[in-house]
């Protein structure tokens, strides 16, 4: 199918999802993330946090993985050890791989214990020392997981030079490996990178503009932060009954609420990244939409298990620009005591969507549909579907200009 047959540019995905007592995304002090919006405190989950959960689910969907790391040299070392290389040579080879690209590098540092005799005992002082052949790239590389094997193959091709090479001991040391082939591997991409993008300015032409944009999730209503005090029993003390009190005490922060989540996928950008391959555009778009609505960040999951599903999923196929409905909740949703926030949040979204689409013009909305739990017909959100797969399929057919039953391969 030619590019001109694709009638839409964006697919927007809107989600209303209630999450119970949880802390899906913590800050550096283990506190719940918040935002002041509409002069009210809301619980927030950062786009980075939810996007990582989406990416993990997406990789399962398409059967491909990408690797983001500064320790690419160590990863190559492990691959070479699995191929039977002696460990010292494999470590040298991994270091030369990491040092051989266009990306600057540094040597990893490890703590050492320096013991100094002192009257009445021994004092200990932490010191850091660089470790030869343990090289870190200054920037995170983001490559298909298959790139590790390709970099190991480069080492295999130059094993003779590596046998006689010196160890990498300082940032000014030069690799004996050719830079061009290493950079070529670092520029490779797969479906994950084509969809989510890559920032790697140090290697020419390695950057990839992401085809998806994900908003920070925020509650549709005002929220409070709850402090949970907890204690842990010392089993031996309890069994022997020879001591009182707990073995450990602490507290954590949590909140609960109904979230509005939004993301959009730019079909033109995705097609440009993969060469306008219709089948791949369809596969990656469908996998992303499914992964976005089904994913959930995993922070504190063992102590909260907050595995809810969305109460509403709305997909909108647009020809002009993405359209978030976050402004619908600038005024916090209210709820009489005991009635909850999900239903009034859905009602607010439906009303706002109708007004926004009317203002922008109905011709810009190519198609829309929805699926939900416990909601009657929602006028203005398009066709109601029975399953997530049906909703996603209908959006794909409209966005890609397919007719029902059309073979897309």
UniProtKB/TrEMBL annotation:
Concerning InterPro entries, the annotation shows: CRISPR-assoc_prot_CT1975
Q: Which intervals carry biased composition (Basic and acidic residues)? A: 162-173
Superkingdom of the source? Bacteria
Please list where the region (Disordered) is annotated: 109-128, 162-181
**Which Pfam families does the UniProt entry name for this protein?**
Cas_CT1975
Question: Could you tell me which NCBIfam families the record lists for this protein?
Answer: casC_Cse4
Entry protein name: Type I-E CRISPR-associated protein Cas7/Cse4/CasC
Species of origin reads: Streptomyces marincola
